[in-house]
Amino acid sequence: MSAKKIQSAFFCQNCGTQSPKWLGKCPQCNEWNTFVEEILNKDSKIATAISSNNSSKPILIKDIDYTQEQRIITNDKELNRTLGGGIVPGSLILLGGDPGIGKSTLLLQFSLSSKRKKILYISGEESQKQIKMRAERINKDSEKCYILTETATQNIFLKIEEVKPDIVVIDSIQTLHTSYIDSSPGSISQIRECTAEILKYAKQTGIAIFLIGHINKDGAIAGPKVLEHMVDTVLQFEGDRNYTYRILRTIKNRFGSASEIGVYEMSQDGLREVNNPSEILISEREDAVSGVAIATTIEGARPLLIEIQSLVSSAVYGTPQRSSTGYNSKRMNMLLAVLEKRCGFRLAAKDVFLNITGGIKIDDTALDLAVVCSILSSNENIPLDTQICFAGEIGLSGEIRAVSRIENRIQEAEKMGYKQIIISKYNKCKYKSNKIEITKCKNIVEVFKLLF
Ligand code: TYD
Ligand code: MG
């Protein structure tokens, strides 16, 4: 397909100065490296290969018929949950994540699992044979999944017209190119222009489109960051590559809550949905060991129980080592200082290692109490009761402060079979249960007396 040459120019992203050529430094605002190519006059007839029954006119909001906007419920429960209850037709969903984290696997697996909806999986990264090999590994064979390798947006739209799928997956946005712009695939202007075309196409045809985007190690350049405002939903697939757990997180969602997460486990044959994440994040133990404490946290909208392990030992070198995995190390140092200064524990000459099991990173101040108890347990070498869990923030004077959504945390702990939860005295909590004992404490010293 030969496209008419389109006029383009370079614009400073800072002040909007136009230039026919790329410039390193903007002559107007003196900013460096801000010029990006943009299209000047796009021929609307060839811009999209779709019929033009789409002239939009103002309608009264009460007259808008939304029954056709029924969500598509997929077979992947975690994906449904993350999207806020299924896929909205005509929406554009961006899935971001580090290379190799499992984005292609997630969406291929989803494509293969479809029983009713026709799905077109377009890859610019792998050949059809390679995708088939991957599909064999995932071990799901579908009647409804079409595979295409293509990178030119105009050809993609023609193929979509041919196949008429309900859902399209494009892997990845960085490999796409439109014939209207000269710059190479993966450059900001290509990415932006391709996404704009795809967005328009999705809105006009009502096909839901998934776009995969890589996040670069060195920041936002050519990464999907620039697109976040264009698409309807931004999902992020994250996890530690050395561990098998992956978290699918909503960063933006025009059609639902942006605080949902989905949890998966990467196995030999693809991703497995984890419907009860608390179960996998707590290691199986026969006997109680010192230095282990269970914390309740909220990830997105979901309560989770996680295990905190710590090891306190006498420092071999003059300067004690402090290291933490999965937990903010500055916060750990603060808690150690509180223990030292406010509660009289002598930890200044001790090495302290802290670890959240499962390789996940948690940023929740409600973990503080469990962190402190795990450190004290290791320091005293007395194991904590395996039936106890914690939810509380520690203040600088050693007091235990209230945390948000305490009811959800207690419910999750109860569901997981814990017999006692220690929370702040100041936490207003209406939840009552005869299965779990709710103990309220004022400060660290009180908790220490209770436990050891
Ligand atoms: P991939 O989906 O290619 O990552 P991305 O598209 O985000 O770059 O996943 C790559 C990793 O997943 C790779 O290291 C191998 C692993 N993997 C499994 O462990 N099991 C499987 O069944 C598959 C298909 C991949
Ligand atoms: Mg991939």
Describe this structure in words.
- The chain is an alpha/beta fold and 452 residues long.
- It has 3 domains: 8-38; 71-275, 3-Layer(aba) Sandwich (Rossmann fold), CATH 3.40.50.300; 280-451, 2-Layer Sandwich (Ribosomal Protein S5, domain 2).
- It is 25% helix and 26% strand.
- It has helices at residues 44-47, 77-82, 103-112, 128-138, 153-163, 188-205, 277-281, 329-343, 368-380, 406-415, 444-451, and strands at 8-12, 18-19, 35-39, 92-97, 119-123, 145-149, 167-171, 208-214, 233-238, 245-253, 261-267, 270-273, 292-299, 302-314, 322-325, 350-356, 388-391, 393-394, 400-401, 420-424, 437-441.
- The protein has a 9-stranded mixed sheet with strand order 6-5-7-8-4-9-10-11-12, with helices on both faces.
- Helix 4 links the parallel strand 5 and strand 6.
- Helix 3 crosses helix 4.
- The radius of gyration is 27 Å and the shape is elongated.
- Mean pLDDT is 86; it is low at 44-52 and 218-223.
- Residues 97, 99-105, 134, 137-138, 266, 268-270 line the site of thymidine-5'-diphosphate.
